[in-house]
Amino acid sequence: MTDPFTLLGVDKTADKRQILGRVAVAMRERRYDAKQIAEAQKELFDPVARAAAEFSHFIDVQGCIGDFAPEAVAEAAIPELELLDAFDEKRTAQR
Amino acid sequence: MNKPRTTQETDLQQKLQKAERLFARHNYPLAKQTFEAALRLSPDEALSEKIKQCEQQILLAKRKETIKRARRLEKQGKYGEALSLFEKAADQQAEPWLTSKITELRQKQAHAEASGHLSDIDAKNDPEAKLAAYDALLAVNPSTELIEKKAACLVTLGRFEEAVGLYSKQTLANDRARYHYGYACARTGAYLAALEQWGTIEHKSNALLAQIEAMLPFLCRELESKNGGWVTAYQLFQTLYGPEQPECFAGYAHYLKFGAIEELWRMEAFADIIEFIEPHPENLSLPLLDLCAKVYFKLAEEDVHYLEPAISYWLTAIYNDRLLAALTIKQQQGEALAIGAIREKLLRRLDDLIERHARAGAVSNRTRAFRDVEIRVIRRLSMLPADEFAGSLFPCTPTIAFEYGLCQPILAFLEKQRNAATAQSEELFETAAYFSVAGPSLMMIESGEEGQALASIPKQSNDDLLNYCRQRVYLACALKKAEQGEKQLKKYFQEALPLIKRYRRHQEEIIKLAYQDALPSHIGLADAMERLSSAIDSAEFREATAYAMAMKARELLFQNINPAPIEKGLKKALSIDPDSEAVKNTLTDIALRKGFDALDKAFKKQKTVAAAEIVQRNGDPRLAETFFNTMERWYLTVQAWEHQERLNSLREFYQGCYLVDRQHPLTIRIAKDLKEQQR
Q: Does the beta-carbon distance from A83 to B221 stay under 8 Å?
């Protein structure tokens, strides 16, 4: 079952104009044959087929993760970790 | 005073002989002395040459001794002294092995010197000074230990990138180096790399675990920004904490797990996702159902073993309106795009998948039956008003219900539906039965495993659903056995009697079977139907029963069984269905057969008139035809007989023929012949 979204490189929110643009690019790139590209376009232009394709080829793990979100951290910050004594050769030797 | 010439010569000869002996025994120093003494007596070039040879051998012996001493010193770790002796030996005579040995010893000596310095360097307090000293030592001895010490020194100095550069080229052999490498990675923002190093530390102290915990939010940020590394991170996390991870990390574990699943999905490594979703959790959430349905479907595309879970999860997912309503295109198009149409399309995808495997001969009857039951049940559930299930996984297939403990609420709901229904349809009953404890037995009969179903079905009880399943299993067994032409069917049909009486479709199943002329035997079925017919008030059933009994009678006739009890059975059949043509025809056939038997007997005794009377009583034209054929043969035979004998026979023939058919050409011919004979 070929994924028309991946084949044309479009997101599930892509509109017809974007799809047509990607069809043109795919034709130029020739990574797939014209028939496959045409079928992908046809599938994405048919709402029922497109819905089925979206259902089949996309997963949404966010729902499985639920409410958990990692603690928000500043963009550039690196945690101020202290070098642990247990692994510090000099301190270990002193002990 | 000079010795006399002869004495001098004798002395020379003795010396030469002694010298040669010593030379031959490799005693070169004494041989040299003796040759020199001989030379003094008589100067001779040959003797000088011998002396030179002795000197060379003496030098070689000394060189050997030097090498021996050098080896002893090397073993004692005295590399400097050993080195000078090997060098001396090499000066005398260069050999490749000596050159290698000298190089090796020079390195050993340098290393020994460096080690001596290393303990002095390690004792220094100033990291900068230490670093400089390590660099100096590394110039002569680039050992792993020294590189690790230098890298640790760089970490202490906060020069993390340089430390990472050094560590990354080494195979780290101890926890200290791994910790420092991980620390340096963490301080450069490479949290996944840090976790990779810390994950391999054997003894993980609480302090280290606390550092990992502090790092987790940063790790997640790193994974998100590069949209990768989730699988590695999750596996490391599992290695670090094992299955019994602290409560506070459960959220991160969950987060990393689903990040890993999404990463594997993108990589199309569907088989690797299995270990993340199996064993299944106790509760199935809607997002997890969605995920499992898609993963199992993708797996089933490649491997038919995943077809059954794919069927169950896929059906449950596509019959969930909330999942289909959440699709982007559905949200964009609203009411213009019907959920039913999307569902049908997705259902076709499943059927196409099954068909593809079926074409390859990989789909068993069991899987086909499994698909049929799962889809039949979920379709029926989907047509029921199920407001009370809002927010839960309804409708679902029986398999999903069993796996996630959803049967009880569904059974309670279906009972309410049954109570509310005006007419008692079997559909509701059957649907509920699939969610009952006997549901798996019902599934077995669908896939043609009646014997196993019978063995697994619970005993009779007061539970309506259980009894329904039990009767279904017994009926399925009865029908299967009847199809196979088995004779002992009564007890199976009898167990299923309430079901057969209640639902017409089961009566029709039996009726259809009764009319199957290709059955290996109708005997068992006819007996069972005869018994059932008194309890089932249906003209069609009675008709089919009579037909089966007629078929049974014919079967018995072929076996040359005495027709009398067969006739009795047929009369019973006529009492069940007085209009049964099959029974009437069979009775006629029996009468004919009886007529033929009697006719045969009479002919054997050559009793023409008795034979004629049998034909006359029976009245069947086939019997008359047989009679006249025999008479014709006999008539021709008697033509050759003597007059009186022929006349007597013709009279008897005429009497018989006249009784059967006075207008028959043979009767007329015999009459005419008789007249002529009597004339």
A: no
Which residues touch B39 (CB under 8 Å, ≥6 apart)?
B47, B48, B51
* Structural domain range at position B41: 5-115
pTM listed for this prediction: 0.73
Closest residue by Cα to residue B665 from B632, B637, B616 = B632
DSSP character at residue B460: P
Å between B372 CA and nearest CA of chain A: 22
pLDDT (mean) for B314-336: 94
CA distance B657 to B667: 5
Mark yes or no for CB contact B214/A79 under 8 Å. yes
Tokens representing residue B665 in the block:
């050409």
B221 domain-assigned: no
**Using 50, 70 and 90 to split pLDDT, how confident is the model at B613?**
very high
Q: What is the ipTM of this complex?
A: 0.90
Domain end point (choices B435, B467, B498): B435
Give A77's pLDDT tier (boundaries 50, 70, 90).
low
Q: Domain ends where: B115, B135, B150?
A: B115
A:B CB pairs within 8 Å: 130
Residue B493: band (very low, low, confident or very high) from pLDDT cuts 50, 70, 90: very high
Number of structural domains found in chain B: 3
Residues of A with a Cβ under 8 Å from any B Cβ are: 1, 12-13, 47-52, 54-56, 59-66, 68-73, 77-79, 81, 83-84, 86-90
Long-range contacts of B8-16 (CB under 8 A, 24+ apart): B8/B41, B11/B41, B12/B38, B12/B41, B12/B42, B15/B41, B16/B47
- Residue type for B489, please? L
At residue A93, the pLDDT reads 43
